[in-house]
Amino acid sequence: QSALTQPASVSGSPGQSITISCSGTNNDVGGYNLVSWYQQNPGKAPKLMIYEGTKRPSGVSSRFSGSKSGNTASLTISGLQAEDEADYYCCSFAGSDTHVVFGGGTKLTVL
Amino acid sequence: EVQLLESGGGLVQPGGSLRLSCAASGFTFRSHAMNWVRQAPGKGLEWVSGISGSGVSTFYSDSVEGRFTISRDKSKNTLYLLMISLTAEDTAVYYCAKDLWDNIPSYAMDVWGQGTTVTVSS
To answer: Which residues in chain B are contacts of A88 at CB distance < 8 A?
Structure first.
């Protein structure tokens, strides 16, 4: 069982927007502004999409945005494209003992 | 070009040991914290271990604490993961990953290697 809870799957049609949630606790998501999101295509290494909850690395499309409310972080993808179909993982700093935790991952299907 | 290249994976018997390496290039290796993240077949990502840029501070997940040792060699720009007492549950693709910021850890990993496969089986 993963430390952070994500829906197993989400889907949307091209052009629509979807949101993936990442639920944690005061000891991780809610306690720090250190949530990151990763996109992973089959057989490939993960790619950083969002860091510090809301910031996009250089080169990542502005269609990807992050937010947080309490103990839940969210990744929103607007203007869905076929190329967005992938697995998405949230990750958070969880203090000096646990250090880093991932969510279980969400499979995004573009219909 | 910033690059990470893992090696050292393979087939090992239960109870055996293995050392993974991750050769870094294209950035100031000594300034960045580094991590190992693994992914069991068909499963999600699991953070395994991290090390500060200086190498002084090391961190481990509960599942590997006491069995795995992370280290780094600044002269060789290489990250290591020594794994002992391996079990079938350690079977996974192991990725090394670079922390985004230099000097101050961001706990976000912006560069990943291609991964090296560890299979624990008799």
So the answer is: none
Residues in chain A, total: 111
The answer to whether B100 contacts chain A (CB < 8 Å) is: yes
Q: Which residues in chain A (57-96) have CB-CB distances under 8 A to chain B?
A: 57, 87, 89, 91-93
Q: What is the pLDDT of residues B23-35, one digit of tens each?
A: 999 999 999 999 9
Centre a 10 Å sphere on the Cβ of residue B2 and count the other Cβ atoms it contains. Answer: 10
Whether B109 sits inside 8 A of A47 (CB atoms) is: no
Residue B31, helix vs strand vs coil: helix
Q: Is B61 on the interface with A (CB under 8 A)?
A: yes
Q: What is the pLDDT of residues B61-119, one digit of tens each?
A: 999 999 999 999 999 999 999 999 999 999 999 999 999 998 888 899 999 999 999 99
User: Cα separation of B115 and A48, whole Å?
Assistant: 16
**Structure-block tokens of residue B45:** 């990502």
Query: What's the CA gap between B9 and B43, in Å, rounded?
Result: 18
The pLDDT confidence band at residue A3, using thresholds 50, 70 and 90, is confident
Q: Which of A102, A93, A75, A88 is nearest to A26 (CA)?
A: A93
Q: How far is B15 from chain A (nearest CA, A)?
A: 25
CB A105 within 8 A of CB A6: yes
> Which residues 20-39 of chain B have a CB within 8 Å of chain A?
35, 37
Closest by alpha carbon to A32, among A91, A92, A90, A74?
A92
